[in-house]
Every structure is written in structure tokens, then in C-alpha cells.
Amino acid sequence: MKFSLIITIYLSMCAIQSAMAGYLGLHPAIDEQWRPVLVIACLLGAFCSGVALLAAVSGRKDEQGK
User: Fold this and answer.
1) I want to staple 11 with a disulfide (CB 3.0 to 4.6 A). Which of 32, 52, 59, 63 is the partner?
2) Cβ proximity of 49 and 15 under 8 Å
């Protein structure tokens, strides 16, 4: 149960970070030199969210199997 809570918090943090990086990457006030950095941050946040979601799902399957 505690593990699922930690994964849920991490998942929400990664999703927020990914959304903010994507928003800033599209914002016209951001300089062109920062756009690739924000795109990489957005993709990294999305990847971490997927990994956290996969870990949470596999953790629940393990708990149900017991």
C-alpha cells in the first residue's frame, strides 16, 4: 500500500513536470535556444510517468496474486 502511494505521488509529479515543459516549449516568449531542452524535459517526464505507471500496475498484480 505504501509503495502504491509513493508511485502515485511520483507519477503525478512527472505528469505535471511534463505538462509544464510542453507548455513552455510552445510558449512564444521562450527563446529558441531553450526549446530543445524543454522538449527533452517533456519527453523525459512522459517516460518517467510511463515507467511509474507500469511499476504501479505490476505492483498491484503482485499484491493480488498473494
Assistant:
1) 52
2) yes
Domain boundaries of the chain, sorted by first residue = 1-64
Task: Tell if the pTM clears 0.70, that is, is over it.
Answer: no
Kindly report the average pLDDT of the chain as a whole number.
74
CB 7 within 8 A of CB 52: yes
Segment holding 41, helix H or strand E: helix 35-65
Whether 45 and 14 have beta carbons less than 8 Å apart is answered as: yes
What cell does 56 get?
504501479
In tens, the pLDDT along 18-44 reads 777 777 777 777 777 877 887 787 788
How far is residue 63's CA from residue 15's CA, in Å, rounded to a whole number?
Answer: 25
